[in-house]
Amino acid sequence: MPLLKRSLQTVKDIALIGKRVVVRADLNVTLGKGLAIVDDTRIRQTLPTINYILDQGGSVILLSHLGDPSGKYIPALSLKTVSDYLSTLLSRPVPLVTWENKSDLHEAEPGQVFLLENLRFHPGEEANDSDFARDLAALGDIYVNDAFGVSHRKHASVVGIAKYLPVIAGLLLEREVSVLSGLLDRPERPFLVIVGGAKVSTKIGLLSRLAALADIIAIGGGMANTFLAAQGNAIGKSFYEAGYTGEAKHLLRHAEHHRVKILLPVDLVVGNPDNSTLTKVVRANVIPENLAALDIGPETEAIFGAAVAHSKTIVWNGPLGVIEKPEYARGTEFIYYALTQNTRAMTVVGGGDTLSAITKEEHLDRIDHLSTGGGAMLTFLEKGSLPALEVIQKK
Ligand code: ADP
Ligand code: MG
User: Fold this and answer.
1) Alpha-carbon gap, residue 132 to 160, rounded angstroms
2) Which among 67, 96, 268, 348 counts the fewest CB atoms within 10 Å?
3) From ligand 1's centre to the CA of 150, what distance in Å?
4) What is the distance in A from the centroid of ligand 2 to the CA of 351?
């Protein structure tokens, strides 16, 4: 499967001069107060593909979704802020084109860039409707997928469109696939995987796959609570998934069988999210009845940090605490800085919330690869491919 990276056709393999190139990008950024862009990483990571097409004499018609409008028009989820921002980054106008005005795109001239309004305003996108996919295909001459973050989704703009136009890979997608294939193909050991975030349920498939691939799996965040509960600990008011304690137990046995070391928190920062005066550190097996585990504790930081220091390959997805509150973001920051100190290791960090927790920190350039995909990165590591990659032209 790691051969995949050599087999995908990319923008570099075909002539783009005079072509109207439809680019599925992942411009799904978080919008904060006054619809300001909170983190522009995803937009910036798309620039190499856009600039390459423009340099080659093509025009660019960008497609993206934003948030989850579920097939309805929601003004706050318009891509207008993103088109304005892109216009600044690219030093040229980037008109936002609505579905009703999409015939304007037939006039696209070399050097021009357009952004089509939020794909998910249309039910056809997530339903992978063939008429919708055909309408998208009719917007240009060539289709480029550069949206790694949605490449695990069977949506019209990701998979369905391939029935109507040849699909090739953009530069970001190619880089993501090449880095992640490398991880599956003889990673340098020890190989450490750090997983956090809220839910075991969304990551259980990956966790069992990792038990055969990694040497150490460090588990933090809300997900760790499900494991602590599975081991028979009282977990107070902590978030956990009661329906997954069986899976968690199974995984612990599976890991033991493969001689994979599982690191769980030994201490935790507990508190009441509505009353920060109750915040304190406790041992992981004595979470008070009226409090919730909201971050890893200092000894756990040291244990996870030591694993980071002696590993040669490190993959991290999922915050280790409730990062939305600064009091509970410390464990995540600690692990981030531990990663930046291990410059010998190949380090890969992915996931929307994970990236937004770290991209304003120092030394971001010391992380080898910031994956724009959370779910997509995990699915790729689990399955070795993605639905979007299956429909891209092979060399
Ligand atoms: P990513 O987007 O990077 O893949 P996830 O979406 O899986 O990450 O997880 C992020 C969420 O996990 C955050 O909203 C965070 O508040 C939550 N989380 C982390 N630790 C805990 C915890 N101890 N209890 C509840 N939620 C947690
Ligand atoms: Mg998330």
Assistant:
1) 9
2) 67
3) 19
4) 6
18 labelled catalytic: no
Task: Please check the confidence at residue 5 and state whether its pLDDT lies above 70.
Answer: no
d(CA 318, CA 350): 8
As a whole number of angstroms, the distance between CA 367 and CA 382 comes to 22
Averaged confidence pLDDT in the chain: 94
Convert the pLDDT of each residue in 147-184 to its tens digit.
999 999 999 999 999 999 999 999 999 999 999 999 98
pLDDT value of position 6:
57
Ligand nearest to the CA of 225: 1
Catalytic residue among 80, 154, 199, 237: 199
170 is known as an active-site residue: no
Asked if 186 and 192 count as a contact pair (C-beta separation under 8 A), the reply is no
- Mean pLDDT (whole number) for 31-44: 88
Answer for the pair 115, 62: CB distance below 8 angstroms, yes or no. Answer: yes
Residue 356 predicted with pLDDT over 90: no
Q: Which ligand is nearest to the CA of 351?
A: 1
Active-site residue identified among 124, 197, 331, 352: 352
Atom index in ligand 1 nearest the CA of residue 295 equals: 23
The yes-or-no answer on residue 246 being catalytic is no
Distance between CA 217 and CA 308 in Å, rounded?
A: 11
**Nearest C-alpha to atom 4 of ligand 1 is from which residue?**
351
pLDDT reported for residue 382: 87
CB atoms within 10 A of CB 254: 16
Taking the whole predicted model, whether its pTM rises above 0.70 is answered as yes
42 is catalytic: yes
Give the Cα separation of 172 and 154 in Å (integer): 19
Phi/psi-derived region of residue 139, left when phi > 0, alpha when psi is between -120 and 50, beta in every other case: alpha
Cα of 223 vs centre of ligand 1, distance in Å, is 8
DSSP string, 196-253: -SS-STTTHHHHHHHHHH-SEEEE-HHHHHHHHHHTT---TT----GGGHHHHHHHHH
Residue 261 CB partners (closer than 8 Å, separation 6+): 215, 216, 217, 255
| Candidate list 42, 153, 175, 330, residue with the active-site label | 42
